Structure formats: C-alpha cells, structure tokens
Amino acid sequence: ASTWSVIKMVFLSLGLCFAAMLFIAFASDEPTLILHVLILVSLGALLFLLLS
After folding, report:
1. Would you give the DSSP letter of residue 15?
2. pLDDT tens sequence across 1-52
3. How far apart are CA 5 and CA 24, in angstroms?
4. Predicted local distance difference test score (pLDDT) of residue 51
5. 27 exposure class (CB count in 10 Å sphere: 0-12, 13-18, 19+)
6. SS3 state at 21
7. Reduced to 3 states, what is the DSSP secondary structure of residue 23?
8. Residue 37 CB neighbours (<10 A)
9. What's the pLDDT at 39?
10. CA 27, CA 2: separation in Å to the nearest integer?
11. pTM score, whole prediction
12. How far apart are CA 5 and CA 32, in angstroms?
C-alpha cells in the first residue's frame, strides 16, 4: 500500500506542474508552446492510465 500512495502523490504533483505549465502556455499565446505542453500532458495521462 505504501508504493501506491507514493505513486498517487507523484501523479498529484505532476498534475499540478502540468496545470501550471498549461496556464503559462495559454497566457503566453504561443501556439508551439501550447502544443508542446499538450503533448507532455497527454504523455503524462497515458503513463497514468498504464500504471493504474
């Protein structure tokens, strides 16, 4: 059970970082930056789905 709690905390912090990156990307209005951040978010979501 300890390993799963660590993994949940890691994904929670990763989600917070992705949310901050998305906020910065949409605030800057650069399409390439938004695209790169969306690719990172989709990779993180895929990793979450594979580990769940």
Report:
1. H
2. 688 888 889 889 998 999 999 899 889 989 999 899 999 999 988 988 888 7
3. 29
4. 83
5. exposed
6. helix
7. helix
8. 19
9. 93
10. 38
11. 0.74
12. 35
CA distance 5 to 13: 12
Q: Can you tell me which residue has the tokens 């993994």?
A: 7
Non-local (6+) Cβ contacts of 17 within 8 A are none
The residue count of the chain comes to 52
Torsion sign, CA atoms 19, 20, 23, 26: negative
| Residue 21 near residue 37 (C-beta atoms within 8 A) | yes
- Return d(Cα 4, Cα 40) in angstroms, integer: 23
33 membership: H or E segment, kind and range: helix 31-51
